[in-house]
Amino acid sequence: MSPISTDAIFANLVFAWGWLDNWIVVVGCLSALAAALLGNFLVLRRMSMLGDAVTHAVLPGIAIAFLITQSRSSLPMFIGAVIVGVLTAVFTEWIRGIGKVDEGASMGVVFTSLFAFGLVLLVQTADKVDLDPNCVLYGAIELTPLDYFVIGDKQIPRAALVLGIVTVINALFVTVFFKELKISSFDPALATTMGISAKGMHYALMVLVSVTAVASFESVGSILVVAMFIVPPAAAYMLTDRLGWMICLSGLIAIASASLGHVAAIVVPTWFGYGSTTTSGMMAVVAGLLFVVAACLGPRHGVIIKAIRRQQLAWTILCDDVVGFLYRCEERANGCAHMSTLSSELFASRFSLGFALRGLLRQGQIRLLTDGYALTEAGRDRARQLVRSHRLWEQYLVTETTAQTDKIHARAHQFEHFTERPMRDELDRVTEAPELDPHGTPIPREET
Amino acid sequence: MIGRLVALTILTLIVLTQSLSAAEPVSGSLAESAIQWPTWSQWRRVLTFQDYNTRIVVFGVATLGAAAGLVGNFTLLRKRALMGDALSHATLPGIALAFVMATAMGMDGKSLVVLLLGATVSGLLGMAAILWIRSQTRLHEDAALGIVLSVFFGAGVALLGVSQQMSTGNAAGLESYIYGKTASMGAVDAKLIFAAATIVIVLGCLMFKEFKLLCFDDGFAGSRGFPVMLLDILLMSMVVLITIVGLQAVGLVLMIALLVIPAAAARFWTEEMSWMSVYATVIGLIGSVCGATLSAVFPRLPSGAMIVLVCSFFFFLSMLFGRSRGVVFRWLRRRRLNRRIDRQHLMRAMFELGESRQSRAKNVSGRKHPSVSIGQLLKRRSWSKRRLATAIEAAAEEKLLRQHGDSIRLTSAGMTEAARLTRQHRMWEMYLIAYAEIAPAQVDRDADDIEHVLEPEIIDQLEVLLEQERLRIPVPEDPHAGEHNESQTGATSNVSTDTEMSR
């Protein structure tokens, strides 16, 4: 294993990078962008698996096109594949509607059957030409620059041209029909009442998905297009709640994962002493890593921020419980409690309890005496409000919902943590300003 | 009757042509490379399992098909039909990595144990990733499956790219995991499949109740103290297990098909989960055996693809003719209901027409029921002439009315039935006005929707409720209560005695 250093990576890259790599990155980016633009709507419509289904299902289209034309020219195969791709969506919808089968299951039935059919057809032709399913499904992105057109004095790879056109079409579709796509994705019924054909949008989307899938996998392999349909949009979905932003972000993530993927394909294997590896595979892996990062760091729905929020809530509730407990101790004329008592009474671990106590001490709501923790004046205020909420809720539950007296404590315990002053006053009014709660303990007065 | 028969015959023909084109997809489009029809002796050889190889293959795919059908049954009902798809793709990086690491350490990279170990580890990782995405983010099931599928498979492709550069060991053939090599299945593979299938089937039977709860109501299962997460993991592990042994024997796409199609086909036959499991298992088993046999008899038909095609043929048969949810049966049931509703509408329309005429003429009694013309009936509702004629014919067949040319007259039995139906309709209208506070001008439509499915018990309850409200129910007295046999007056007389008792 060679030592990993930044210099070594750069040296390696500069050494390995050539005009080929530029085109590979361009082709990869175009394919990723084209797929990600449409993928947003697939993810939102819960049809993420369609890309996978279409790329598997097009096999018979290719085989039939080959059988009819008896040549390996790409246009008939392209058309055949697109037709079968659209048929996959149509059959899936058909079986789902007529047979009342779950969407995923009907997709599974359709694409495996079509794939098997295509395989049978291909085997029949096997002795005439070699039409390797491998090559159909795993087109090699590394070889795309070698198949080029000459335009002016520039050599432009065919794949770049085709994918460029597809990307432009997809971008136009998404921008022109943005409103229609948005409404029909989120609320098909509303779309229909607004005069937008939800079905029309669905099938337009399906046609473009098939075109994109076929155009991409022919040159860059199916795995890349399947990944790019789902992963960048899913990552963007983690980062924003607005559809416009989501589409832009998914495009950026797609481009980033395509370019970084190629760099990774050259660099990463050298760390373990191997040469460069399959680019499209690494592009998918990088997209996956970007997704994980987005899922963890998302500003509103990220895993980390959610965990922090949950932890904060847990500590707030624990602090509430501590002051509430100390207040009840004071009512029984014993105003102090030790750490161990608190820990066993509140079912809290010593670690989190210690954290909560330190926070309360810092806020000046409790103080440490010789025989344990006791409330300060500020802490007593907080505790009084809390206990008042608790007991008013208990009273309310008994009088208004005829709940059993032994069941109300737990419910009131949940409510007390988010009951503010106006709510308490309302409860007080509804329960006719009681002096005692259902258990017979006095309800503290509100501070004026 | 005749219409029904004709419709059935046409449907059968359509299905037959469809099935032919599904089972022999190549014959039409491939005139020049037509399949040679095997001789009788070839058939006999295969069908009696004289070849060792055929025996192994058929035995292997049969057990695999049965186990996959059972597991697929659970995943389908859990609405995760494509889980097998995602998990089978997720095994690829494990296979490639196991090969690379084993070869780097100087072991045989292609030994079955090493590859299976790698596949299991990465399949389980894929499963964990799916669960993580689903529980920690707001993405839905399909996106979780899609992400795991594509990213893991991408990693696998990248690792395969590395493995092809290994100086030692030959990576060629690792790809066969994707396409399978059913026809060259060995005794070791078959034994492995048998072992895995046994584990899966035994687990599926032992944990049937738990899985059933998990599939239909995981929230309830959780509240009853079942470890839902653990059950989910167990179910997914069963998918991983059966996928891994299946993958290296029959390939990726076939494995997905075996997990999805038999269960989806079984769903059409029954509403009982235990029966559905049995059907799914049997369809998986028979489909696999038929496919493998066909591929053994006919040259150049890949067995994996044939198994999928036979299974999807079963699926289409089930979708059309399934006893419980099949298209044909659902259509017949709906038509029967529509006809009954039409007949009930006809009876009520006739009753109401007669009623209005009676009140006009102040003619209280009359043994002869007034006759009405078809023209009058056509004006009552928006129904076509043909539909009305069918309804009249059906009612006449049940001796509820008599038709003389253009005029129709209710029989005595018909009068009772019509009175009962009108009564139901008006009771429900009164109920809606009194309890649901619906405007009287609108109740007719609402009552129309529900009157056909009202049970006698509900009518009784309505009667009691409306009695409490002190509402007079404008239902005419049955003028011929004494004349009819019990079965026809049963509902009405029950109601009246109940009313008396409630007073």
Provide the CATH topology of the largest domain in chain A.
Answer: ABC transporter involved in vitamin B12 uptake, BtuC
CATH architecture of the largest domain in chain A: Orthogonal Bundle
Gross morphology of chain A: elongated
Beta strand count of chain A: 4
Helix content of chain A: over 70%
Give the count of structural domains of chain A.
Answer: 2
The CATH top-level class label of the largest domain in chain A: Mainly Alpha
Question: Structural class per helix/strand content of chain B?
Answer: mainly alpha
User: How far do the termini of chain A sit from each other?
Assistant: 74 Å
CATH architecture of the largest domain in chain B: Orthogonal Bundle
The helix fraction of chain B, in percent, is over 70%
Shape of chain B: elongated
Seen as an oligomer or otherwise, the chain set is: heterodimer
GO molecular function (chain B): DNA-binding transcription factor activity; protein dimerization activity; transition metal ion binding
Transmembrane segments (chain B): 52-74, 112-133, 145-163, 183-208, 228-246, 277-298, 304-322
InterPro entries (chain B): ABC_BtuC-like, ABC_TroCD, Fe_dep_repressor, Fe_dep_repressor_sf, Iron_dep_repressor, WH-like_DNA-bd_sf
Signal peptide (chain B): 1-22
